[in-house]
Specification:
Blueprint: H1 5-17, E1 19-21, H2 22-29, H3 33-45, E2 49-52, E3 55-58, H4 68-73, H5 76-86, E4 95-98, H6 102-105, E5 118-121, H7 124-133, E6 137-140, E7 144-146, E8 151-153, H8 155-161, E9 166-171, E10 175-177, E11 181-184, H9 187-198, E12 200-206, E13 218-221, E14 228-231, H10 237-245, E15 249-252
Parallel strand pairs: 4-5, 4-9, 5-6, 9-12, 12-14, 14-15
Antiparallel strand pairs: 1-3, 2-3, 7-8, 10-11, 11-13
Length: about 250
Protein backbone atom coordinates (compact mmCIF):
# COMPACT_ATOMS: atom_id res chain seq x y z
CA UNK A 1 0.00 0.00 0.00
CA UNK A 2 1.30 3.47 -0.96
CA UNK A 3 0.01 6.60 0.73
CA UNK A 4 -0.29 9.85 -1.18
CA UNK A 5 1.37 12.95 0.27
CA UNK A 6 -1.75 14.12 2.09
CA UNK A 7 -2.44 10.71 3.60
CA UNK A 8 1.16 10.42 4.73
CA UNK A 9 0.85 13.80 6.47
CA UNK A 10 -2.24 12.52 8.28
CA UNK A 11 -0.34 9.36 9.22
CA UNK A 12 2.59 11.35 10.62
CA UNK A 13 0.34 13.72 12.58
CA UNK A 14 -1.61 10.88 14.18
CA UNK A 15 1.49 8.83 14.83
CA UNK A 16 2.82 11.75 16.89
CA UNK A 17 -0.37 13.00 18.54
CA UNK A 18 -2.33 9.68 18.68
CA UNK A 19 -5.71 11.43 18.36
CA UNK A 20 -6.92 14.64 16.75
CA UNK A 21 -10.14 16.51 16.09
CA UNK A 22 -11.11 16.29 12.40
CA UNK A 23 -11.86 20.02 12.25
CA UNK A 24 -8.34 20.80 13.43
CA UNK A 25 -6.96 18.29 10.92
CA UNK A 26 -8.82 20.03 8.09
CA UNK A 27 -7.33 23.39 9.10
CA UNK A 28 -3.79 22.04 9.34
CA UNK A 29 -3.97 20.33 5.95
CA UNK A 30 -5.97 23.08 4.20
CA UNK A 31 -8.42 20.56 2.74
CA UNK A 32 -12.19 20.35 2.46
CA UNK A 33 -14.35 18.18 4.69
CA UNK A 34 -15.16 15.79 1.84
CA UNK A 35 -11.48 15.35 0.90
CA UNK A 36 -10.51 14.65 4.50
CA UNK A 37 -13.41 12.22 4.86
CA UNK A 38 -12.16 10.21 1.85
CA UNK A 39 -8.61 10.09 3.21
CA UNK A 40 -9.73 9.04 6.68
CA UNK A 41 -12.00 6.35 5.21
CA UNK A 42 -9.09 4.96 3.20
CA UNK A 43 -6.74 4.94 6.21
CA UNK A 44 -9.41 3.31 8.39
CA UNK A 45 -9.94 0.51 5.82
CA UNK A 46 -6.19 -0.17 5.91
CA UNK A 47 -6.30 -0.50 9.70
CA UNK A 48 -4.04 2.53 10.16
CA UNK A 49 -6.55 4.65 12.09
CA UNK A 50 -9.87 4.43 13.88
CA UNK A 51 -12.62 6.96 13.30
CA UNK A 52 -15.00 8.30 15.91
CA UNK A 53 -17.53 11.09 15.65
CA UNK A 54 -15.41 14.20 15.06
CA UNK A 55 -12.02 12.58 15.70
CA UNK A 56 -9.35 10.30 14.23
CA UNK A 57 -7.28 7.93 16.39
CA UNK A 58 -3.99 6.21 15.58
CA UNK A 59 -4.42 2.41 15.62
CA UNK A 60 -1.95 1.41 18.29
CA UNK A 61 -2.16 0.00 21.80
CA UNK A 62 -0.41 -2.47 24.10
CA UNK A 63 -3.18 -5.06 23.65
CA UNK A 64 -3.90 -4.59 19.94
CA UNK A 65 -1.37 -5.50 17.26
CA UNK A 66 -0.76 -2.70 14.77
CA UNK A 67 -1.83 -3.11 11.17
CA UNK A 68 0.83 -4.31 8.73
CA UNK A 69 0.23 -1.06 6.82
CA UNK A 70 1.10 0.99 9.92
CA UNK A 71 4.22 -1.03 10.55
CA UNK A 72 5.47 -0.84 6.96
CA UNK A 73 5.16 2.95 7.03
CA UNK A 74 6.90 3.33 10.43
CA UNK A 75 10.62 3.80 11.11
CA UNK A 76 11.54 3.12 7.48
CA UNK A 77 15.11 4.46 7.64
CA UNK A 78 15.85 2.68 10.90
CA UNK A 79 14.50 -0.63 9.64
CA UNK A 80 16.63 -0.34 6.51
CA UNK A 81 19.80 0.16 8.57
CA UNK A 82 18.93 -2.76 10.83
CA UNK A 83 18.27 -4.98 7.80
CA UNK A 84 21.66 -4.20 6.26
CA UNK A 85 23.40 -5.02 9.53
CA UNK A 86 21.47 -8.28 9.81
CA UNK A 87 22.94 -9.45 6.50
CA UNK A 88 26.27 -9.95 8.29
CA UNK A 89 24.64 -12.90 10.05
CA UNK A 90 23.15 -14.55 6.97
CA UNK A 91 24.97 -17.54 5.50
CA UNK A 92 24.40 -19.73 2.44
CA UNK A 93 23.14 -23.28 2.85
CA UNK A 94 21.11 -22.44 5.95
CA UNK A 95 17.46 -22.52 7.01
CA UNK A 96 15.62 -19.63 8.65
CA UNK A 97 12.42 -19.10 10.54
CA UNK A 98 11.09 -15.64 9.65
CA UNK A 99 8.19 -14.06 11.51
CA UNK A 100 5.54 -11.79 9.98
CA UNK A 101 7.15 -8.49 11.06
CA UNK A 102 7.73 -5.59 8.68
CA UNK A 103 11.22 -5.06 10.15
CA UNK A 104 12.34 -8.52 9.04
CA UNK A 105 10.66 -7.84 5.70
CA UNK A 106 13.40 -5.33 4.90
CA UNK A 107 15.99 -8.13 5.09
CA UNK A 108 14.24 -10.49 2.69
CA UNK A 109 15.03 -9.01 -0.77
CA UNK A 110 18.74 -9.36 -0.01
CA UNK A 111 18.48 -13.11 0.55
CA UNK A 112 18.66 -13.62 -3.20
CA UNK A 113 22.41 -12.99 -2.85
CA UNK A 114 22.86 -16.22 -0.87
CA UNK A 115 22.79 -19.74 -2.26
CA UNK A 116 20.55 -22.53 -1.01
CA UNK A 117 18.51 -20.59 1.53
CA UNK A 118 15.30 -22.06 2.96
CA UNK A 119 12.75 -19.93 4.81
CA UNK A 120 9.75 -20.94 6.89
CA UNK A 121 7.43 -18.02 7.65
CA UNK A 122 3.97 -17.27 9.01
CA UNK A 123 3.83 -13.89 7.27
CA UNK A 124 1.81 -13.53 4.08
CA UNK A 125 3.49 -10.25 3.20
CA UNK A 126 6.97 -11.64 3.87
CA UNK A 127 6.25 -14.79 1.85
CA UNK A 128 5.13 -12.56 -1.02
CA UNK A 129 8.36 -10.54 -0.85
CA UNK A 130 10.41 -13.73 -0.97
CA UNK A 131 8.54 -15.27 -3.90
CA UNK A 132 8.53 -12.06 -5.95
CA UNK A 133 12.08 -10.85 -5.31
CA UNK A 134 14.20 -13.93 -4.58
CA UNK A 135 14.79 -17.54 -5.53
CA UNK A 136 14.67 -18.63 -1.90
CA UNK A 137 12.80 -21.84 -1.09
CA UNK A 138 9.76 -20.74 0.94
CA UNK A 139 7.47 -22.71 3.25
CA UNK A 140 4.33 -20.86 4.36
CA UNK A 141 2.71 -22.14 7.54
CA UNK A 142 -0.88 -23.23 7.77
CA UNK A 143 -3.31 -21.66 10.21
CA UNK A 144 -5.76 -18.79 10.54
CA UNK A 145 -5.06 -15.64 8.50
CA UNK A 146 -5.20 -12.44 10.55
CA UNK A 147 -5.99 -9.89 7.85
CA UNK A 148 -4.99 -6.84 9.84
CA UNK A 149 -1.39 -8.00 10.20
CA UNK A 150 -1.10 -10.50 7.31
CA UNK A 151 -0.03 -13.07 9.89
CA UNK A 152 -0.94 -16.76 9.96
CA UNK A 153 -1.51 -17.92 13.54
CA UNK A 154 -3.15 -20.61 15.64
CA UNK A 155 -2.63 -24.24 16.65
CA UNK A 156 -2.17 -25.38 13.03
CA UNK A 157 0.63 -22.83 12.66
CA UNK A 158 2.36 -24.14 15.77
CA UNK A 159 2.04 -27.76 14.65
CA UNK A 160 3.47 -26.86 11.23
CA UNK A 161 6.47 -25.10 12.80
CA UNK A 162 7.21 -28.23 14.86
CA UNK A 163 8.01 -30.11 11.64
CA UNK A 164 11.18 -28.04 11.07
CA UNK A 165 14.52 -27.50 12.77
CA UNK A 166 16.17 -24.32 11.50
CA UNK A 167 19.62 -22.85 11.89
CA UNK A 168 18.35 -19.34 12.70
CA UNK A 169 15.20 -17.50 13.78
CA UNK A 170 15.07 -13.83 12.72
CA UNK A 171 12.22 -11.92 14.33
CA UNK A 172 11.00 -8.61 15.68
CA UNK A 173 8.67 -7.76 18.54
CA UNK A 174 6.00 -5.41 19.78
CA UNK A 175 8.10 -4.21 22.68
CA UNK A 176 11.21 -4.90 24.74
CA UNK A 177 11.50 -3.93 28.40
CA UNK A 178 13.81 -4.68 31.29
CA UNK A 179 10.91 -5.78 33.48
CA UNK A 180 8.94 -7.91 31.00
CA UNK A 181 11.41 -9.05 28.38
CA UNK A 182 10.19 -9.31 24.78
CA UNK A 183 6.46 -8.98 24.25
CA UNK A 184 3.63 -8.92 21.73
CA UNK A 185 0.14 -7.43 21.75
CA UNK A 186 -1.30 -10.75 20.55
CA UNK A 187 -1.09 -14.07 22.46
CA UNK A 188 -1.29 -16.15 19.29
CA UNK A 189 1.62 -14.20 17.81
CA UNK A 190 3.69 -14.76 20.96
CA UNK A 191 2.98 -18.52 20.97
CA UNK A 192 4.07 -18.97 17.34
CA UNK A 193 7.32 -17.10 18.02
CA UNK A 194 7.95 -19.27 21.07
CA UNK A 195 7.67 -22.38 18.90
CA UNK A 196 10.06 -20.93 16.30
CA UNK A 197 12.51 -20.20 19.13
CA UNK A 198 12.21 -23.80 20.35
CA UNK A 199 13.02 -25.20 16.90
CA UNK A 200 16.02 -23.05 15.97
CA UNK A 201 19.61 -22.76 17.18
CA UNK A 202 20.41 -19.05 16.85
CA UNK A 203 17.95 -16.28 17.66
CA UNK A 204 18.31 -12.77 16.20
CA UNK A 205 15.97 -10.02 17.39
CA UNK A 206 15.57 -6.94 15.19
CA UNK A 207 14.16 -3.96 17.11
CA UNK A 208 14.37 -0.25 16.34
CA UNK A 209 14.95 2.12 19.26
CA UNK A 210 11.23 2.93 19.68
CA UNK A 211 10.58 -0.68 20.75
CA UNK A 212 12.78 -0.25 23.84
CA UNK A 213 10.95 0.50 27.07
CA UNK A 214 7.66 -0.78 25.64
CA UNK A 215 5.67 -3.54 27.33
CA UNK A 216 2.86 -5.31 25.47
CA UNK A 217 0.23 -7.71 26.76
CA UNK A 218 1.95 -11.07 26.10
CA UNK A 219 5.55 -12.11 26.68
CA UNK A 220 7.06 -14.05 23.78
CA UNK A 221 10.49 -14.72 25.31
CA UNK A 222 13.04 -13.57 27.85
CA UNK A 223 16.51 -12.11 27.30
CA UNK A 224 18.14 -15.49 27.93
CA UNK A 225 16.41 -16.80 24.79
CA UNK A 226 18.14 -14.30 22.48
CA UNK A 227 21.62 -14.49 20.96
CA UNK A 228 21.74 -11.16 19.09
CA UNK A 229 19.82 -7.89 19.29
CA UNK A 230 20.25 -5.59 16.29
CA UNK A 231 19.00 -2.04 16.75
CA UNK A 232 19.65 1.44 15.35
CA UNK A 233 20.60 3.33 18.53
CA UNK A 234 22.49 2.53 21.71
CA UNK A 235 19.93 1.65 24.39
CA UNK A 236 20.08 2.79 28.00
CA UNK A 237 22.58 1.41 30.50
CA UNK A 238 20.01 -0.86 32.13
CA UNK A 239 19.38 -2.63 28.82
CA UNK A 240 23.11 -3.01 28.20
CA UNK A 241 23.50 -4.51 31.65
CA UNK A 242 20.70 -7.04 31.19
CA UNK A 243 22.09 -8.01 27.77
CA UNK A 244 25.49 -8.65 29.36
CA UNK A 245 23.92 -10.69 32.15
CA UNK A 246 22.19 -12.93 29.61
CA UNK A 247 25.07 -13.22 27.08
CA UNK A 248 23.14 -11.29 24.43
CA UNK A 249 25.33 -9.61 21.83
CA UNK A 250 24.14 -6.06 21.17
CA UNK A 251 24.72 -4.88 17.58
CA UNK A 252 24.19 -1.22 16.60
CA UNK A 253 23.32 -0.62 12.95
Amino acid sequence: MILNDRQRKIFEILKKEKTINTRELMNRLFVSESTLRRDLSFLAKQGIIYRTHGSAIFAESSSMESSIHVRVQSQVKEKGLIALKCLEYINKNESYFIDSSSTVGYVLPFLDNYQNITVITNGLNNASILTQKTNVKVYLTGGIVYRNTNSILGIDTINYVKRFNCNVFIFSCGGISVESGISEANLEQALVKQEMLNHSKIHILLADHKKFGVTNLCQSCDFKDIDFVITDKMPSAEFIQIFDQNDVKLVIA
